[in-house]
Amino acid sequence: MAIGSIDRSPPPFFRQGLSALTKLLLCAALAVFLMAADRRLKLIEPLRAALATVLLPVQRALMLPVELAGGIGTHAQGLRQAIANESAAQARLAAQAVRAARAEQLAIENARLRALLELRPALPVRSISAEVMYEASDIYSRKVFIDRGATHGVVAGAPVINDAGVLGQVTRVYPLTSVVTLLTDKDAAVPVLNARTQQRSAAFGGADGGMELRFLAGNADVQVGDLLVTGGVDGVYPPALPVAKVAQVDRRAESGFARVLATPVAPIDGVRHVLVLEPVGAQLPPRPEEVPPEPAKPSRGGKAARP
Known about the structure:
Layout: H1 20-40, H2 45-116, E1 127-135, E2 143-146, E3 159-161, E4 166-173, E5 178-182, E6 189-194, E7 200-207, E8 210-217, E9 227-230, E10 242-251, E11 257-264, E12 273-277, H3 280-283
Antiparallel strand pairs: 1-2, 1-12, 2-5, 3-4, 3-12, 4-5, 6-7, 6-9, 7-8, 8-11, 9-10, 10-11
């Protein structure tokens, strides 16, 4: 055998290709090229879409047990929550039934007492439902526009309430809209009655986004948490409507008055539907006109007698 025909190639175990560092650099360069091409030219987008379409049934099949287990857990939790809500609703209905029966009994007793004392019956409060359209553009006032006006029977000075309590008062009436000044406005003022002590006072708006009771003596019996309601003797608001709760009482030694801050019971922000009540004064009978004094009769001497 000739020497030149001998296979001089090394065995496969001893063959050496590119170094590991070179392979790393080539793979890194290829990866960067593919990412740049996919980012700029969207070359792999069709392949990715086709692969996602092919693998979608497989993904659905693999996610089915997980969704089934989650659905069972959600159903069980929803069932427990529904049972709890039903129990709470039944308890509330029972409490409301008791309160309704008590209120009906009190109404009957009130009617009997009024008939016994020969007092006129309580005035029915007529109301108009309205919706808040938008707030006034003045950032220094708290006023809103409602979609009811003079053509719907709204009058200036009408109280505006919702299911929580008093919101404000109509201050300007247009044919189809009206302006409501909210309780927290700096120009708002409401006569209130302390439900605990039956003490009358006036609540003014504009006190740090809340209300303030002014002109109260420093030793006045007022406490944090007292409920302030309408008194019903101002000719505007019906009686016993919730207005605010006392939030802070500051009795200053150097002043003869106490600084009392209150928070409105009804939420001022986010209100959509309201009721516009007819002022109580519009339902009362007219006041008797004052009779002018009779002129003094002249005396015998021709001169008017002195009173």
